Amino acid sequence: MSQPSETDIQQIFDRIAPVYDRFNDLLSLGQHRIWKKMALRWCEPQQGEKWLDLCCGSGDMTALVAQKVAPTGQVIGVDFSKELLAIAADKAKNYSSKIQKCLTWQQGNVLHLPFEDNSFNGATLAYGLRNVASIPQCLSELHRVLQNGSKVAVLDFHRPSDRLMQSFQDFYLDRVVVPLADRFEMTDEYAYIAPSLARFPIGSEQVKLAKAAGFNQAKHYAIANGMMGILVLQK
Ligand SMILES: C/C(=C\Cc1cc(O)c2ccccc2c1O)CCC[C@H](C)CCC[C@H](C)CCCC(C)C
Ligand SMILES: C[S@@+](CC[C@H](N)C(=O)[O-])C[C@H]1O[C@@H](n2cnc3c(N)ncnc32)[C@H](O)[C@@H]1O
C-alpha cells in the first residue's frame, strides 16, 4: 500500500475526530495517557517556557505541557485537522483558567511552521511523526524553530523486536482495533495504522534521521513491551 497523501491523512483525522479520544482510551485500556506522561518526563518542560506540541490533534499532550509551563509559559498546539483542533479547543474550556491562558491552537502544516528560527524552548510530538508526509522535513523544521539546548519528546508506535510481541501487536491491530472501528464505519481509517507502522523507521533509524536534521543528542526508548517508543532529542 503506497503512502497516503497529506490530504488523505488530513481527511482520516477529520473523519475519526468524533471517536478519536474514546477509541484511544478503549483500545489502549487508558495506557496511552501513561505513555504520554512518560514522554513528557523525558523532555521536562519548565514553568514560564514557550513550547510547541506538533500534530497536537485533540490536545492531550498540549494540555500536559501547559500544566508544566503554567502560569507564565505558553504552549502552541499545531495540527492541520480542523476537526481535531475543534475538539481540543472544546476540551480546553473545561481546564482551569490558569491552564487555558497558556494554550494556543493553530491550524497548520508542521512541515511548514509559521514561526521564526530559535523561537521555542522545547517541543512534543505524540503519534505524529509516523503520519507526516516527510519525516526528514518535519525534524528539520522542528530543529529550526527550537533554541539551542531545547529538548523534544517524540512518542509513537514501534515494532517490537520480540517475535511474540510482534505477533501480538499484529493480532491486536488487525483483529481488535480494525473490527471495532468497522462497527463505527471507520474501518479504512484504523486499517491505516498497521501499514503506517510497517513503513515507520525503527528506533535506531529515527535516531539517525534526527542527527541528520541537526539534533546533537538523540536516543530512542522502547516502551510498552516494544509496541511504543519515545525518541528523545536535544538541539
Ligand atoms: C494514542 C494511540 C494512538 C493514536 C493514533 C495514532 C494514529 O496514527 C492513528 C491513525 C489512524 C487512526 C487512529 C490513530 C490513532 O488513534 C495509541 C493507543 C490507541 C491504539 C489504536 C491502540 C493500539 C495499542 C497497541 C497496539 C496494543 C496495546 C495493548 C493493550 C494495552 C492491551
Ligand atoms: C494520531 S494523531 C495524534 C494526536 C495527538 N498528538 C495525540 O497524541 O493524540 C496524529 C495527528 O497528526 C496530524 N498531522 C499529520 N500530519 C500533519 C501535518 N503535516 N501537519 C499538521 N498536522 C499533521 C493529524 O491531523 C492528527 O491530528
From TrEMBL:
This is 2-phytyl-1,4-naphtoquinone methyltransferase. It is an enzyme of class 2 (transferase). It comes from Phormidium tenue FACHB-1050. Methyltransferase required for the conversion of 2-phytyl-1,4-beta-naphthoquinol to phylloquinol. One of its GO terms (molecular function) is methyltransferase activity. GO terms for biological process: methylation. It catalyses: demethylphylloquinol + S-adenosyl-L-methionine = phylloquinol + S-adenosyl-L-homocysteine + H(+). InterPro entries: MenG (IPR032904), SAM-dependent_MTases_sf (IPR029063), UbiE/COQ5_MeTrFase (IPR004033), UbiE/COQ5_MeTrFase_CS (IPR023576). Belongs to the class I-like SAM-binding methyltransferase superfamily. MenG/UbiE family. It comes from the Bacteria. Signal peptide: none annotated. Pfam families: Ubie_methyltran. Keywords: Methyltransferase, S-adenosyl-L-methionine, Transferase. Its EC number is 2.1.1.329. Pathway: Cofactor biosynthesis; phylloquinone biosynthesis.
